[in-house]
Design brief:
The chain is of the alpha+beta class and 340 residues long. It has two domains: 225 residues, Aminopeptidase; 89 residues, Elongation Factor Tu (Ef-tu), domain 3. The chain contains eight helices and 17 strands. A hairpin with a 5-residue loop joins strand 1 and strand 2. The longest helix has 16 residues. It is globular.
């Protein structure tokens, strides 16, 4: 099972350039749904037809990354960030620049001498950093490196704690994509009319979800996403290994209490560990979905991840598998009550 997660994590998919990860997902999920389609902005919509309520399950395909701004006379490549990635986490990071010729150029993010006493007295800003490829400006031009080229953060996928924990780039939100694919495999019989939506450009503005929700017009929705693990804080929330988390509030919305109640009752009935997340940081596709057309009752099922929006995250396979179980138990016999 983790081989699929590895393929999802290893695939490229920076916001605005999600074609590679979309192809991986489409190939995997196609045999478990009735039809798939790609809309005008790149959302992949996989439809499992049913006669009941129209349910949208969303996971975003895009990851944080970088884009080439320009190259100086010495061949140093300067970049702009795509998504909320902290500059401090970038120093020493390996990258792959996808050139205009569709070739990859390897590099390492660096800055002026790190041991310089003036530099170490302050946190770095993105403008302090550049990519060293070892090439001259002229060599980079011949390789097709130009402003606007996407830069992927390169990290190997791996395991900690005898395989219970996984680490890698883009766990936000390839864990969500993995959960929806595995759910589609299991959920072959349900009355619900289910749309598995793999959205684009979540990291830069929650754009894909709004467009897909407008088209689908779901009765209710759940966004499956990463959430920051706070198991090292004084008030421990989103503890890795303690189960998926229902987000009750984030910086953009208060989630739907009826759907949250369904999830809580399902977890209790089937003895699935569940946590609750109240935070002031960021938001998810659920925000865009909620305020589409006349409004869509929505909530968030989050997987706790350490080092969220850094170059490498850590997640628990137990949490991921429990999220699959939670959604399966909820949807194979979906609630018939109204969502209010």
């Amino acid at each position: 099972m983790t081989e699929l997660l590895k393929r999802l994590v290893d695939a490229g998919g920076i916001s605005g350039n999600e074609a590679e990860i979309r192809a991986v997902i489409n190939k995997e999920i196609l045999k478990y749904v009735d039809e798939t389609s790609v809309d005008s902005v790149g959302n992949l919509i996989a439809h499992k037809k049913g006669k009941g309520s129209k349910v949208m399950l969303a996971a975003h395909t895009d990851e944080v990354g970088l884009m080439v701004k320009g190259t100086d006379d010495e061949g140093n490549v300067y970049f702009s960030r795509i998504g909320g990635i902290e500059p401090l986490t970038l120093i020493g990071q390996r990258v792959k620049i996808k050139s205009s010729y569709n070739h990859f150029v390897d590099g390492v993010i660096t800055t002026k001498e790190i041991s310089n006493s003036d530099f170490v007295t302050k946190l770095p800003e993105a403008s302090d950093l550049f990519i060293d490829t070892g090439h001259t400006k002229e060599e980079l031009e011949k390789k097709g490196v130009n402003p606007g080229d996407f830069i992927v953060l390169y990290q190997e996928f791996g395991y900690l704690k005898d395989g219970d924990l996984v680490y890698g780039k883009a766990l936000d939100d390839r864990v969500g994509c993995y959960i929806l694919i595995e759910l589609a495999k299991k959920l072959q019989k349900t009355e619900a009319d289910i749309y598995y939506v793999f959205t684009v450009q979540e990291e830069i503005g929650l754009y894909g979800a709004k467009i897909s929700a407008y088209k689908i017009q779901p009765n209710w929705a759940i966004a499956v996403d990463a959430t920051g693990a706070e198991d090292k804080a004084s008030i421990k929330m989103n503890v890795i290994g303690k189960g998926p988390a229902i987000t009750l509030k984030d910086s953009g919305m208060i989630t739907n209490s009826t759907i949250n109640g369904w999830l809580a009752e399902t977890a209790k009935k089937h003895k699935i560990p569940l946590q609750y997340d109240v935070n002031e940081k960021g938001s998810t596709d659920a925000l865009s979905i909620s305020f589409t057309r006349e409004g869509v009752p929505s909530t968030i099922v989050g997987i706790p991840i350490r080092n969220l929006h850094s170059t490498i995250g850590i997640a628990s396979m137990n949490d991921i598998n429990n999220a699959i179980k939670l959604l399966f138990e909820l949807l194979h016999a979906p609630p018939k009550l109204s969502v209010v």
